Amino acid sequence: MKLLVNGAPIDAEPAPGQCLRSFLREQQQFDVKKGCDSGDCGACTVLLDGTPFHSCILPAYRAADRAVTTVAGLGTPERLAPIQQRFVDAAGFQCGFCTAGMIVTASTLDEGDLAELPRLLKGNLCRCTGYRAIEDAIRGRGAACGTTSGTTSGTPCGATDNTTPGTPCGTTCAATGDTTPTTADTAEPTSTGAAHGRVGSSLGAPAGARVVSGQEPYTLDIAVPGLLHLGVLQSPHAHARIRSIDVSAAESLPGVHAVLTHADSPATLFSTARHENRLDDPDDTLVFDRVLRFRGQRVAAVVADSVGLAEAACRLIVVDYEELPAVFDPDQALRAGAPLVHGDKDAAASRLADPGRNLVAELHGERGDFEAGLAAGTTVVSGTWQTQRVAHGQLETHATIGWREDDGLVLRTSSQVPFLVHKEICRIFDLDPALVRVFTARVGGGFGGKQELLTEDVVALAVLKTGRPVQYEFTRSDEFRLAPVRHPMRVGVTLAAGADGRLTALGLTVLADTGAYGNHGPGVLFHGCSESLSLYSVPNKRVDAECVYTNNPPSGAFRGYGLGQVVFGIESALDELARRLGIDPFELRRINSVVPTDPFVSAQGEGDDDLAFGSYGLDQCLDLAEAALARGNGAVVPDGPAWRVGEGMASAMIATMPPRGHYSHVSVTATAEGRYTVRVGTADYGSGTSTVHAQIAATALNTSPDRIDFRSSDTDEAGYDSGAFGSTGVVVAGKALLGAATALARELRQLASGRTGLPAHSWALEQGGLRSGELFLTLAELAGPDGVTGVGTESGAERSVAFNVQAFRVAVNTLTGEVRILQSIQSADAGFVMNPAQCRGQIEGGVAQAIGSSLYEEVILDGAGTVTTNVLRNYHLPQLADLPVTEVYFADTADDLGPYGAKSMSESPYNPVAPALANAIRDAIGIRPFELPMSRDRIWRMLQP
Amino acid sequence: MDLNTVTSITPARHRDDLRALAPDVAPLAGGSELFASPQAHLTGLVDLQTFGWPALTVTRDGLEIAATCTLAELSRLPPEPGWNAHPLFLQCCTALFGSFKVWEVATVGGNLCAALPAGPMTTLAAALDAELLVWRRDGTDELLAAADFVTGNSTNVLETGDVLRSLRLPTSSLRSHTAFRSISLSPVGRSGAVLVGRLDSDGGFVLTVTAATVRPIQLRYPSLPEAAGLRRDIDAIDGWFTDAHGAADWRQAMSRLLGEEVRQELERKLQAA
To answer: How far apart are the C-alpha atoms of A459 and A474, rounded to whole Å?
Structure first.
């Protein structure tokens, strides 16, 4: 058929059942993304003769003789269309994977449509931003917010950028999203009068123009000649042993290059979870296992000329399964006689607490005398809270392309941790690390879900087996069935306090369902019970926590890493305690929260030695949130007697990086071209790390970000980095980068001194060179043909703490169970705010994701291990219509440990949201929610007699 | 998504072309349903769009909607004089889970044939007592009441080889006053309950309950009932169901609530008239 794509004629035949999305990508139109392939997410939106369509549900042949326009056809990086420019100006994206479809859709809207944005954008999902910035972009108010409400003690989010007014600043435009600040007492910005591009300014993403024009390649946006595709036969049983497997029919299908089964699998046990210390996770996984422990687990894989052929061949594989008894309830899993999920494992070798009881990890500890503390209290509160499975829902599904290069193996993969994947792939396949390269292109979201090795191992095996390039791409349903979910937890909390509100005892019991594999099981359990407990200064603490195997799909790492679940219980219990004592909930936190003179005490012992108060802003966060809530936002309470209004708040603390070391080795080179090249190993999956890195380098080298080139997330190009998890992009990799840039600056001064005899300290770095008085040496001549390099390393030996306080005012409809958020406030102690607009976006995105967990999202199982919500239309990711604009306030602090005084702020905004919302609902209706999500049907049921 | 097992598309231009339909060859209208999930059992599709059926035809008897009419086309249809029920077209289109971009491909017939509880074209057709014209495989035609078309969650009365040809909305229904209510677990999410009341010129009242039950349920009254009676009859409905879009007990309660709102709205209209 013939058609025009962005004005260029195409003459190609689609397969009869092919959709337009994949046809366009086949024509190397890689700006057309796949998010869901079912018409729900909108990432693949294109115009057909000017009308927007979800190209994934449009039969390709229907595009014959028509004109297709993709986001790349709207404008180029050099000549952006106005709508594309507005997305850059408003920082209307984070990972950018939804952006192509978002912009194509937005390009069809006119002024008259703006009132209907909630309806018109329900077919465009963004998992990163929380939509405020997207709405700003569409409304063209990228830079128009003006200064913001705040209090004198706090730095309001998005103090304007002095040197370039008009830079998107991330001002707090209050809950209505109006351009007019809704509160009267505006305060002067108190800091961040930073020069554009330097730390403290709201620099836009360096890749911005390419992202909004569809030119920034993601993992699969590359044409690889001779590429084969991998399809996987998934287990139909929750627990079974493969008696026999016959692949002969599959192998003989023309176009099939290999069929891989447990017979091809290395015998090395590993964990799909990746940590700096590989011993953190139990070794319980094989590339292919003869025992299948959850529905969907790999049985076999086919490598074929096309995805369709691979699928067809999978259907020809004959497997004789011996079904085994299975267990789906974590309580039952611990009982004597329960089916054992990993009964075959050696506890010591796999690092399991007790495989004979399905126990992966446990934590039991007491500080002080818990029972005595309980007896000492005049008021005791206890309850049990249950959290659900939540899907990461990042728009780019997991995917890897692998190929041979010389004698080596190359993996281009969608990962947060390329170096850790590299290490483990070498271990599993016994490969020389020098011959393996793992790298990422731009990563379309992760949220913890890509701190795993889910596609790389089987691609490596396929490449090693066939010698050919091989691609494996998760479908959206694979994401729901195979990719780990947030650990569901049952959290029991007991609190005791005196009449003065002082806590005398804090007890915690946790039961976490880690599913069929233990990836992240121990870490999530331990971390969940750590900062949640040590936030409060209580003389008597006790914890009993267990993480168990079941035959459910595996749980894993997810933003907050267990804290969100445990904080939901503790902060709800504190709210109940405040009610019983008649003490304001903010006040109760002030009475009991740790202050810098306190040690960090978790129930296991006196804190982690490496944890320190590098700064402290919880007091400010409490004040800021309390004041904002008291101020209100003028939101109108819905009419009618069915509505009840309530307020609630919650706190959270998080360590600024993971424990036991997080490493980054960064180099900065001054080049013969008079530019700088930064080599940093960590990955940016939408959190904006690379933007802040550009700011750090520009500041330390006194130059502008456009002079700096990055070689990132590549084991061949950059020094070792533990990767992007535990909120480390700024505080570890950024600090190493600061060290490298500072070392380079010193070296350049020395060189200049050596050339001229003038003292090193007289030389100052300028754009393009160094100056001492009238003398100017260009960077190019100093760098010479080989360049000059500075290196910096960071080991994460010392960790600080960051704080977040969330507050809500809600209206609850007692007849329907609807919760309407009238005001959403988050105050954050991020230390020095490196990039106000971006940090605001991180917080908004975290709040948005947490509102999703709180009100809407649940991966539902049928009780026998089958995921019933395996498409986006049955799993409700928040849409624009679902979310309020969150007011964001920053505490005015500077950290002793982080670079320039910065702290991490990517996971933590999630953690206090669910309990704050639950507490507000409790305040409104007089009944406390104990279960997530607090969906309308659950709230309605709570209200029934 | 790609339907990799599909190796042929038959453009249908004559009714005879439908003979190609088989258990592994399905009729294709807009594609928004077929292409949204794996169809490994299919080897072929018969494209109904090539029939070129006129999407919307106003007749003396009412409105004929071709099965292949898209929701976008339906949503843009201007009202004829006296069509008091006309707002229901846009209301039902808006109740589709898919975005306005899906309206461009999703068809009225396809939505009925998908037979999802929350299918808003099922709501529309049932609420207005549409007659459905079915082309049976043996070449005969059959007219069915819309409310009888959907038989369960994702099942309908069609046999392999049958095709839904069109919907006929009678003028009497189009002239009726209607009231529409829907609710879901999120502001614009997939419907958990959609209720439409219709007050006919003869005073008769029909309440159509969809999305809360696996198939449409209709309650008919010679005149607008009292609140208590309506509530009792809604409570007596069998078939509330639970899925990711709402629990059965909530759906039942919401139907009671919205049914009463519908009744009150039409009562006000009656009083005004």
So the answer is: 12
Asked if the Cβ–Cβ distance from B99 to A124 is below 8 Å, we say yes
- Judge whether A403 and A678 are in contact, CB under 8 Å: no
A241: Cα within 13 Å, side-chain hemisphere: 7
Q: Tell me the β-bridge partners of A647.
A: A809
Q: Do residue B88 and residue B112 come from a single domain?
A: yes
Task: Cis check for the bond before A181: say yes or no (omega within 30 of 0).
Answer: no
How many helices (H) and strands (E) in chain B? 8, 14
Contact residues for A112 (Cβ-Cβ < 8 A; gap 6+): none
Handedness of CA B248, B254, B255, B256 (dihedral sign): positive
The secondary structure of residue B130, as a DSSP letter, is -
Report the half-sphere exposure of B198 (CA within 13 A, side-chain side). Answer: 28
Q: What is the 3-state secondary structure (H, E, C) of A4-51?
A: EECCEEEECCCCCCCEHHHHHHHCCCCCCCCCCCCCCCCCCEEEECCE
Helix (H, G, I), strand (E, B) or coil at A628: helix
Pick the closest to residue B156 from B194, B208, B110, B92 (CA basis). B110
Of the residues A427, A458, A481, the one at which a domain ends: A481
Cα–chain-centroid distance for residue A836?
A: 19
Q: Look up the ipTM and state it.
A: 0.97
Computed over every residue of chain A, the mean pLDDT equals 93
| Among A54, A309, A474, A943, the residue to mutate for chain B (most B Cβ within 10 A) | A54
Cα of A18 to nearest chain B Cα, Å: 4
Helix/strand number for chain A, H first, E second: 26, 34
Helix/strand/coil for A249: helix
Where residue A143 falls among pLDDT bands split at 50, 70, 90?
A: low
Task: Give the model confidence (pLDDT) of A3-33 as tens digits.
Answer: 999 999 999 999 999 999 999 999 999 999 9
pLDDT at B121 over 50: yes
Are the beta carbons of A815 and B257 separated by less than 8 Å? yes
* Cβ-Cβ contacts under 8 Å for A624 (sequence gap 6 or more): A150, A151, A153, A154, A805, A827, A889, A891
Phi-psi region of A470 (alpha: psi -120 to 50; beta: other; left: phi over 0): beta
Query: Which pLDDT belongs to residue A660?
Result: 84
Residue B247, chain A, CB below 8 Å: the answer is: yes
What does the alpha-carbon distance between residue A754 and residue A759 come to, in Å, rounded to a whole number?
Answer: 8
Same-domain pairing of A117 and A97: yes
- Looking at the fold, whether A5 and A115 belong to one and the same domain comes out as yes
Q: Which residues pair with B22 in a beta bridge?
A: B25
In a domain, A446, yes or no: yes
| Spatial distance between the Cα atoms of A867 and A235, rounded to a whole number of angstroms | 13
Closest CA to A411 of A423, A396, A393, A395: A423
Q: What 3-state class would DSSP assign to A827?
A: strand
CB A214 within 8 A of CB A84: no
- How many domains does the structure of chain B reveal? 3
Distance (Å, whole) CA A397 – CA A400: 10
One domain, residues B72 and B158: yes
Give the Cα separation of B104 and B81 in Å (integer).
26
**What is the distance between the alpha carbons of residues A684 and A444, in angstroms, rounded to a whole number?**
9
Taking the CA of residue B204 and the nearest CA in chain A, the distance in Å comes to 29
Q: Can you give the residue range of the structural domain that contains B15?
A: 8-46
Nearest residue, CB atoms, A881 vs list B183, B187, B247: B187
Token code pair at residue A295: 């529905």
Instruction: Enter the pTM of the model.
Output: 0.95
Residues A758 and A785 in one domain: yes
Interface touch A45/B187, C-beta < 8 Å: no
Residue A276 neighbours by CB under 8 Å, 6+ apart: A420, A658, A660, A661, A662, A663, A722
What whole-number distance in Å separates Cα of residue A202 and Cα of residue A665? 26
At A530, which amino acid appears? S
Phi, psi of B163 (to 5 degrees): -135, 135
Structure tokens at A552: 């459910």
Distance of alpha carbon A823 from alpha carbon A637, whole angstroms: 11
